[in-house]
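Record format v2
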Amino acid sequence: MKKYTIKDIAELAGVSKGTVDRVLHKRGKVSAAALEKVTRLLEEIDYQPNLIARSLKNTKDYHICVVQPDPEIDPYWQPCVDGVNDAIKEYKSFGITIDSYFFNHADTDSFFKINKTILQQRPDAVLITPIFHKESVEVIKQYNAKNIIVSTINDPLELNGITNFVGQDLIQSGRVAARLMEMIIPKNRTILIIHLDEVFNNSIHMQLKEKGFKNYLERLQHSNFTLKTCSLQQADLYDKLNGLLNNPNSVSGIFVTTSKVYSVAKIVDNFPNLDIKIIGYDLLDENIKYLKNNAIDFLINQNPKHQAYLCITQLAEYFLFDKKIPREKLLPIDIVNSENFDGYTKN
Amino acid sequence: MKKYTIKDIAELAGVSKGTVDRVLHKRGKVSAAALEKVTRLLEEIDYQPNLIARSLKNTKDYHICVVQPDPEIDPYWQPCVDGVNDAIKEYKSFGITIDSYFFNHADTDSFFKINKTILQQRPDAVLITPIFHKESVEVIKQYNAKNIIVSTINDPLELNGITNFVGQDLIQSGRVAARLMEMIIPKNRTILIIHLDEVFNNSIHMQLKEKGFKNYLERLQHSNFTLKTCSLQQADLYDKLNGLLNNPNSVSGIFVTTSKVYSVAKIVDNFPNLDIKIIGYDLLDENIKYLKNNAIDFLINQNPKHQAYLCITQLAEYFLFDKKIPREKLLPIDIVNSENFDGYTKN
DNA sequence: TTGAAAGCGCTAACAC
DNA sequence: GTGTTAGCGCTTTCAA
């Protein structure tokens, strides 16, 4: 069970370390005889290079830039920032520097400006949260032109030029919500699907979730739910929802396609005798408050913190240890209720 | 943003690398003046040692032994083995050798025998799956006496001498199941709690889950479920359950505290008009089959594969990079239905 | 085509 | 007390 090093191989083959290295990396300039001998030896002993040593040699400092919506403007993004910060700490001692940049999630100009700055820095990789689809495509092209690796989280779209994507299957996510809804409301009732602030956000997300949700329910054999979709602005939510709920039995379940589900729960809370079930997204403190008192029945955890952290991890291990980066990593769609949320929130 | 090395510090402080190292590791034999100067400098520039270099120096081969129930005897343990095997592959190139040993989960002698063999090998750490509690306590003492690190997964008990534990909060796990059950069966019905093969397994697990389950339901304000507990052997299951189910409306929900929930689902499937809800544990193929056709309503994922993998990861990063090992790592309690299982099964 | 040698950053033994 | 030095395993340059 001895650990063989290049030196061992060299001695066994009667050549120098340099030659072994040339064989290992197929750098040519090796005689047929030596090639043959070393190759066989390598196979025989199942040589595994010491990745630590290899990495040490490569003393380059790697540089990753992260482009995210500013959490001070939309706190939804705070978990992503937290995930990135964890990664910063973890990889600092490994010679990987990570810089965070924030844009205004309602302002494409700020997005462009930041990417321009980053381009000039020529980092080794950039992680972007592409909430502006069209604009992202453009920016990614520029990064690719300079051979800068581009990673994304959170975006379900096929973006060309992306090296790796970490996220969730959003259609499936809608199906998960639908199955849950099916289980907790009586057959044949009416379900409301609410998209909140669609114009200001990446509406593709909401549409895919809706698609999955409908798709699941429409194919059911023995029940026949009525589905109503509303795309609303926060400002209009109160009036609209109040109107609907004052008409009793009109709605039995509400599926909110975003993390703003607490604002729906807050209104529904005023109708305690209606027993309306609510399913939505993300473990915001506000959402968990309603989850705890059963005003929200289920939350689906998109795990933005882990998405961001994992994405950087993949890049770091690629730089340090040449570990292959999976092109797409789909995280599980966590179902969260009042009893298991803290397993997902605390770390 | 320069990366400072020991050499840099030495030059800045006007001392040698050796002295800096002595300060860093508090090895004494440093004059007050030098100590003061170097210490301040280190703080000033927030020196971070290069962990790769440090690790390379330490060329020792670490050795971890894993003691698990034989998956050929009880396939429940296969995921753990898979997790360990993943870790073996991953850390092979980092100078960490991991050996797997299997005991018969129904034979304490085999457990002792294997631990005896391992003790003689004097590994750096051992990961045991302590399904025999009393016996494990004994064995752990012996490891501790030889300064061998002991890690465990899957066991909720306070075992003294354990360095780290990776697992789940089993009482909370029962509460999760209870909350789910509450949502999917009508109020005030009867719920059956089934422990399968309790004598042959670690019954503590089942008891804790039951405790959490009951605890949740008993404190509900507006409903009043009747709870019945059965501890059964596989062989008796069919007769007992048939008896119960032939008495209509006797049972509305069944909570199975182990992964053998499929064997309950199989029997309940013969009573299609009863609409009995079933909740159980673990993503065995057999369970997923019933989950898919809604015969099982929810499974709780204990994620044995990840438990094992994570545990070894923690040990490896401790050996390689001196990363602190958390004494206890509680994994989230994943709720799984027919729509999100594949996020947890495929990797 | 090949071997020798330097060096990545850190540690520790050894000489002064 | 302190500085020097060798060396961890691998890569790469340079001279032969």
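The first helix of chain A runs from residue 6 to 13.
Chain A touches chain B at residues 1, 3, 48-53, 55-56, 61, 92-95, 97, 168-169, 172, 175-176, 178-180, 183-184, 216, 297, 320-321, 330-340, 343-344 (CB under 8 Å).
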